[in-house]
Amino acid sequence: MARDFYEVLGVSRTANQDEIQQAYRKLARRHHPDVNKDPSAEERFKDLNEAYSVLSDPKTRARYDRFGEDFRKIPEDYDERVAAGAGGGFRTRRTTGAGGPRARYTTGFGEDFSAEDVNIEDLLGSLFGAGAGSAGVPGADQEAELPLTVEEAYKGGRRTVTLAGPSGEPRRYEVDVPPGVTDGQRIRLAGEGGRGSGAAPAGDLHLRVRIRSHPQFRLDGRDVHVKVPVSPWEAALGATVPVPTPGGGTAKVTVPASSSSGRRLRLRGEGMPNPRGANGDLYAELRIMVPPTLGDRERELFEELAATSSFDPRRTR
User: Fold this and answer.
1) Rounded to two decimals, what is the model's pTM?
2) For the segment 69-114, what is each residue's pLDDT rounded down to a tens digit?
3) Per residue in 185-215, is it b (16+ CB within 10 Å) or e — as a string?
4) In CATH, what is the architecture of 222-308?
5) What is the CA radius of gyration of the chain?
6) Which of 162, 177, 198, 308 lies 20 to 30 Å from 251 when distance is taken between CA atoms?
7) What CATH fold (topology level) applies to the domain 142-211?
8) Where are the domain boundaries for CATH 2.60.260.20 in the chain?
9) pLDDT in tens, 156-171
10) Cα gap 118→121, rounded to integer Å
11) What segment(s) does the record annotate as region Disordered (predicted)?
């Protein structure tokens, strides 16, 4: 029995793209074979990936809504080809015969088929030319998510990804991730999408990059923001302090004297790499930290500073 992709994801047919994505992420985490050891989890995960690959692409979803389980047999440019003169599309009418009422389908060329003898490839052949049915119909493009950490996105490299294959079976893909990919960027795997019929080629698989949240780094396009802790005396007197970078190393930033928490210091070109242009920048945001406990001498010095200084941080400047 054909699966309803909306039921697989547990969403209504009127669900928007955000609702579909949220439903997929929630269920994919629950049923991923690396997390869920239930024997049925792998099959469930496979179904989720197939459903999401179809419903997350507006064009593929529209074809699925229109043609149901046969949507992969329908070319993406179906409407354009019909409008260009390959036939006026399908018209349906009800007829009554010995077996009672039944549907009949009529093409723009006048051919007439009953519901019980219609063959989708023959029908396509009559619409798009005599060779269309025998040559087959190209496979549909599919889309899936490729989750990456900030560090993985920064460095790039080869990744092994397990997704549902063209027929829904679990399949491993070797993916070359370019350094500096950004959230939402797509990586195309030619010929790894839905299978075509007959001699027609398979579609492509598009992997949409999703960069996971990071406890230290926050991305804004190719710019990277990181909070840098400094001591009260470093902030007051100025200092040179190390700053972690998403590449795994450290950079040095000069903290000007009399700096306050929240001050941002830019390190040009130290953000995410860009193979086609300028790298992003790294922004170090200062956070003044005090010792968790004070020694006797430290307390004396802070008390002396409190008695000597006239500075009031709550005074409006």
Assistant:
1) 0.55
2) 778 777 666 666 655 544 444 444 444 444 444 444 444 433 344 4
3) bebebeebbbbbbeebebbbbbbbbebeeee
4) Sandwich (2.60)
5) 30
6) 177
7) HSP40/DNAj peptide-binding domain (2.60.260)
8) 142-211, 222-308
9) 999 888 876 555 678 8
10) 9
11) 244-280
Structure tokens at 261: 């928490």
Segment of 56-70, 107-121, 186-200, 236-250 carrying the highest mean pLDDT: 236-250
CA separation for the pair 69, 91 (Å, rounded): 20
Tokens of 134: 């025998």
Give the Cα separation of 109 and 87 in Å (integer): 6
Alpha-carbon span 51 to 57, nearest angstrom = 10
Count of Cβ atoms closer than 10 Å to residue 30 Cβ = 13
Helix (H, G, I), strand (E, B), or coil: what is residue 284?
Answer: strand
Amino acid at 87: G
Fill in the DSSP letter of residue 312: -
